[in-house]
Amino acid sequence: MRANEFNGENTYFFMIQSINPRTGKIIKIFSSCKKKDVHDAVKRSKIAQRNWADKKPEER
Questions:
Q1: pLDDT at residue 5, as a whole number
Q2: pLDDT score, position 34
Q3: Angle at 23 (CA atoms; ends 19, 25), nearest 5 degrees
Q4: What pLDDT shows up at residue 1?
Q5: Which of 35, 40, 45, 59 could form a disulfide with 10 if both were Cys (CB 3.0 to 4.6 A apart)?
Q6: Do the Cβ atoms of 19 and 27 come closer than 8 Å?
Q7: What would the mean pLDDT of 18-26 be, rounded to a whole number?
Q8: DSSP labels for 14-27?
Q9: Contact partners, residue 36, CB within 8 Å, separation at least 6
Protein backbone atom coordinates (compact mmCIF):
# COMPACT_ATOMS: atom_id res chain seq x y z
CA MET A 1 0.00 0.00 0.00
CA ARG A 2 1.25 3.44 -0.85
CA ALA A 3 -0.04 6.69 0.62
CA ASN A 4 0.83 10.12 -0.74
CA GLU A 5 0.20 13.48 0.80
CA PHE A 6 -1.75 15.64 -1.62
CA ASN A 7 -2.39 19.41 -1.85
CA GLY A 8 -1.04 19.97 1.66
CA GLU A 9 -4.53 19.22 2.97
CA ASN A 10 -3.49 15.92 4.53
CA THR A 11 -5.52 14.00 1.99
CA TYR A 12 -4.10 10.62 1.17
CA PHE A 13 -4.63 8.74 -2.05
CA PHE A 14 -3.68 5.13 -1.89
CA MET A 15 -3.83 2.00 -3.92
CA ILE A 16 -4.30 -1.46 -2.49
CA GLN A 17 -3.15 -4.22 -4.76
CA SER A 18 -3.88 -7.88 -4.34
CA ILE A 19 -4.34 -11.00 -6.39
CA ASN A 20 -7.76 -12.50 -6.97
CA PRO A 21 -7.31 -16.10 -5.83
CA ARG A 22 -9.83 -17.45 -8.36
CA THR A 23 -8.49 -15.91 -11.55
CA GLY A 24 -4.94 -14.97 -10.56
CA LYS A 25 -5.60 -11.44 -11.84
CA ILE A 26 -4.30 -8.41 -9.95
CA ILE A 27 -6.98 -6.26 -8.36
CA LYS A 28 -6.22 -2.60 -7.74
CA ILE A 29 -8.41 -0.51 -5.49
CA PHE A 30 -7.85 3.23 -5.50
CA SER A 31 -9.14 5.31 -2.64
CA SER A 32 -8.58 8.59 -0.86
CA CYS A 33 -9.23 9.90 2.60
CA LYS A 34 -8.23 12.52 5.13
CA LYS A 35 -5.09 11.80 7.12
CA LYS A 36 -6.86 10.90 10.36
CA ASP A 37 -9.04 8.36 8.54
CA VAL A 38 -6.25 6.40 6.88
CA HIS A 39 -6.53 3.38 9.15
CA ASP A 40 -10.30 3.23 8.81
CA ALA A 41 -10.19 3.62 5.03
CA VAL A 42 -7.67 0.82 4.70
CA LYS A 43 -9.91 -1.43 6.76
CA ARG A 44 -12.94 -0.53 4.60
CA SER A 45 -10.97 -1.20 1.41
CA LYS A 46 -9.92 -4.62 2.62
CA ILE A 47 -13.52 -5.49 3.47
CA ALA A 48 -14.67 -4.25 0.04
CA GLN A 49 -11.94 -6.30 -1.57
CA ARG A 50 -13.01 -9.44 0.26
CA ASN A 51 -16.66 -8.89 -0.66
CA TRP A 52 -15.69 -8.36 -4.29
CA ALA A 53 -13.59 -11.54 -4.36
CA ASP A 54 -16.47 -13.53 -2.87
CA LYS A 55 -18.91 -12.50 -5.63
CA LYS A 56 -19.51 -14.73 -8.59
CA PRO A 57 -17.97 -13.32 -11.80
CA GLU A 58 -21.38 -12.60 -13.35
CA GLU A 59 -22.34 -10.38 -10.36
CA ARG A 60 -19.31 -8.12 -10.74
A1: 46
A2: 63
A3: 40
A4: 42
A5: 35
A6: yes
A7: 78
A8: EEEEEE-TTT-PEE
A9: 10
For the beta carbon of residue 8, count every other beta carbon within 10 angstroms. 6
Distance from C-alpha of 60 to C-alpha of 57, rounded to nearest angstrom: 5
At residue 51 the predicted structure's pLDDT band, cuts being 50, 70 and 90, is confident
Among 13, 26, 32, CA closest to 53: 26
Q: Residue 26: what residue type?
A: I
3-state secondary structure of 5: strand
- How many CB atoms within 10 Å of residue 50? 10
- The dihedrals phi and psi of 46, each to the nearest 5 degrees, come to -65, -40
